[in-house]
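Protocol step 4 of 6: structure prediction from sequence.
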Amino acid sequence: MKAGPMRSARIVVLIAAFACVLFLSPVTAIYGERRGRGRRAGYDEQSSSSACRRLQRLSTHEPSESESIRSEGGTFELSTEEDNEELECAGVAFFRKTIERDAMSLPQYAGADLLLYVVRGEGRLGIVFPGCPETYREDESSFQGRRSRRRSSERRGEEDDEDSSQKVRRIRRGDVIAIFAGAAYWSYNDGNEPLQMVAIADTSNPQNQNRRDYSSFPLAGPGSSSGGGGRREEEGEEESRGRRGVGNNILAGFNTRTLAQSLDVELETARRLQQNQHSRFFARVERGRRLSLPAPRSRSRSPYAGRQRQWGREDSAENGVEELVCPMRVKHNADNPEDADVYVRDGGRMNIVNRYKLPALKYLGLGAERVILRPRASFVPSWRMNAHAIMYVTRGEGRIEVVGDEGRSVFDGRVKEGQFIVIPQFYAVVKQAGEDGLEYITFTTSDNSYRSTLAGRQSVLKAMPEEVLRAAYRIDQNEARQVMRNREHDTLILPPSSSSLSGSGRYNQDQQQNVTSLLVQVA
């Protein structure tokens, strides 16, 4: 008597599993293979190590070394590996995008994984994931309710003309955002000030099988002058450099008739898709008109929540793609003081964004750290054991010292707002804020970066036997214990210390030279 129901249940399970594999394949084919693979699985290690070995000095950089596009809607500035040997060592490109009020960044996709940070402003961001349904609408009614309306419309032979899209996210200052290679995205500034973002493009990721440099593929804008159906007009733009890494509207490259047939639209409509937008990369919304976009869904009213999953029920035959991939969280705010991983009174704080806080990063192999140092505070001397770091100053100024191999100082200077510097793996660095403090975002080429420090409670010097320190540095017992214990209660951020202004400068200089010698041995 029980054999029949059990057999039916097995059949239902097999059918559901097959459906899940069938419908998930467009997404899992892209993201599933990233799991368990190191970021450098397909990395050109020879090229990278060669670039790193060639480094003699590090420098601060402006983001516009390779490309600068200015239009009435915004500014795009790019630095690539071709013009920056330090970026070549890290295997990334760096760009800064500023969108003016009531303007948008045109839809595009990149040939590399992107990790963005919102420096200032707020706006909207759309990311299109292949295989996900367009269930995000201005009205926040339930998913099942929308499905029933669609079915009733279909039965009446009517078209459902309600605007729908994939999820549109609200972004604001401090957000760290992950965008997968090949995923189309756009952004719109509906705030009261310019929306500025900085980002790294992981050009060395094995997902980028085309070429190892940054390339973007606009889905709107002017076409190439030699394109199939499009034309090239540049109105109101100033370009300071060549078009390295930034392409033209790919729709304009198609034959107009082919495009019209593919989209099932009139020939004139296809021609407008190719030619109507003359502004490159940005577009300003018509004066007096703002884009009407779906409002962000509240967490308590998720359209995927509250579904029953009991075998045999009519509404249980879901493919699973919406629950597993489509609502994936791709942003995390790094400016929230309550979420700080390190907080030091009078010293500052640090917010770490890794694969544990933002699980999407495990697919990218990237991470970020937001650090705010109060005036004259410092970040302990340290080196990263598994990642390169790209540091961008968002506010204030300070002094940075970087020591490379052979005990050489490769950088000793000041950094200020708007500049970035690349700190290669294993290079030791110490940062000290100026009189107005120092705030910065650091992108790392690992989704779980970790470091060794030369001061604080986790100092490598503190963890060594006292006799080892005495022999290595030729110091007496009292000096060794000072090195080991004077900072044993401090964390990664050191508040201003009056002892640093005492008359022991000569001793500190000699000790720093000895520490540098030890650092060379470790690196």
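Step 5 (inspection) to follow. The first helix runs from residue 3 to 31.
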